[in-house]
Amino acid sequence: MRASRNLKFLAAALAFVVGLGTVGFHYIEGWPWFDGFYMVITTLTTIGYEEVHPLSHAGRVFNIVIILSGVSLLFLLIGSLTQALLEFELQSFFGRRRMERDIDRLTGHYIICGAGRVGRSAARELARRPAQFVIIENNEAKAQKFAGETGW
Fold first, then answer.
1. In this structure, are strands 110-113 and 133-136 parallel, antiparallel, or unpaired?
2. Beta strands of 34-131 (E only): which ranges?
3. What is the spatial distance between Cα 144 and Cα 152, in angstroms, rounded to a whole number?
4. DSSP 3-state of 113
5. Predicted confidence (pLDDT) at residue 150 exceeds the cutoff of 60
6. Is the whole model's pTM more than 0.70, yes or no?
7. How deeply is 27 buried, as exposed, middle or buried, from its count of CB atoms within 10 A (0-12, 13-18, 19+)?
8. 45-54, 58-67, 101-110: segment of lowest average pLDDT
9. Which tens digits make up the pLDDT trace of 114-149?
10. Shortest CA distance to 29 belongs to which of 52, 51, 49, 55?
11. Looking at the DSSP assignment, which residues form a beta bridge with residue 136?
12. pLDDT at residue number 148
């Protein structure tokens, strides 16, 4: 959840910088809206084309602010996206390995097919006895919901 929140915040901040830059070039330099937008995009992507129109001193100072804030945000966004993808992949990999290891250790256990109404009832009864059991569910969302509700 935290990675998603960070990505949303950084994307919103980057969109704000693009909007601010477009408005700034329009009002500071008197450029058409598209020229200002184009200038901000070429600046943030570090492509390095020359300016759409010559910049005044105030325009250059403003462009420096756009470069520092926008490029920094863009790199932070790329880093956060990479971190989120790596965390997701590692969590999936190690979570699956742990589950497979736990299943391999089970002996003398019951297998419940499906986490529907009857499967959940059977699982509650086996948990009260304490008996070892495994629940197999095709629907990943239902399995996650059931695991979250019961802690199994």
1. parallel
2. 110-113
3. 10
4. strand
5. no
6. no
7. exposed
8. 101-110
9. 877 888 888 888 888 888 877 888 888 777 777 666
10. 55
11. 113
12. 65
The residue type found at 67 is I
Q: Which two tokens stand for residue 14?
A: 């980057």
SS (H, E, C) 31-57: CCHHHHHHHHHHHHCCCCCCCCCCCCH
The H or E element that residue 29 is part of is helix 2-29
**What does the pLDDT look like over 61-81, one tens digit per residue?**
999 999 999 989 989 999 988
From residue 137, how far is each of 29, 42, 44, 119 by CA, in Å?
62, 50, 47, 10
Cα 136 to Cα 13: distance, rounded to the nearest angstrom: 43
Phi, psi of 116 (to 5 degrees): -80, -160
Could you tell me the end-to-end alpha-carbon distance of the chain, in angstroms, rounded to an integer? Answer: 22
Cα–Cα distance between 108 and 106 in angstroms, integer? 7
